Amino acid sequence: MTPQDNEELLDATDLKLLELLQSDASLSNLELARRVHVSPPTCLRRVRRLWEGGWIEKQVALINPQKAAAQLGHGLEAIVEVTLDRQGEEALAAFEARVVADDAVRQCYRVSPGPDFVLIVGVPDMPAYLALQQRLLTSDANVRNVKAFFSVKRGKFAPRVDLRRP
Question: Where is the HTH asnC-type domain (predicted)?
């Protein structure tokens, strides 16, 4: 069952729970229940149903990039556009499977029109980016064009889904 199949099952309380969890997944069940005005057992049951229904994929900690850079070195983030020679489903799936398996690839999107893929990659430095480029792009005979943009400043990062109904 896909999340779209469950759409009718979500009510205002479920949507509020998802919104709260997107903002702060560390909230206790007691605090979540208080904020959505339900009992703690009801809240726990609803959150469990959201997990089981596929509405919640995973819970992660978002690391402050400035603090990480101060401790670990600057780091390099790039937005990379990739165009393939052959765009059949098999070729697209093969390229996607290869790049998503690489730890340096943080995000991978199939896009249209324009390039076939947009990748968000993170590496320690330019030599590491060049190694990634060779490993994933230059060595692939189906890659026709690559255009990389290097981030100099992150203005906004909001890993959330808009839950408002149109």
Answer: 10-77
Q: Do domains 7-52 and 65-150 have the same CATH topology?
A: no
pLDDT tens for residues 73-89? 768 999 999 999 999 99
3-class DSSP state of 73? coil
What percentage of the chain's residues is helix, strand, coil (to nearest 5)?
40, 20, 40
Contact between 83 and 49 under an 8 Å Cβ cutoff? The reply is no
Topology of 65-150 in CATH? Alpha-Beta Plaits (3.30.70)
Exposed/middle/buried for residue 70 (C-beta within 10 Å: 0-12, 13-18, 19+): exposed
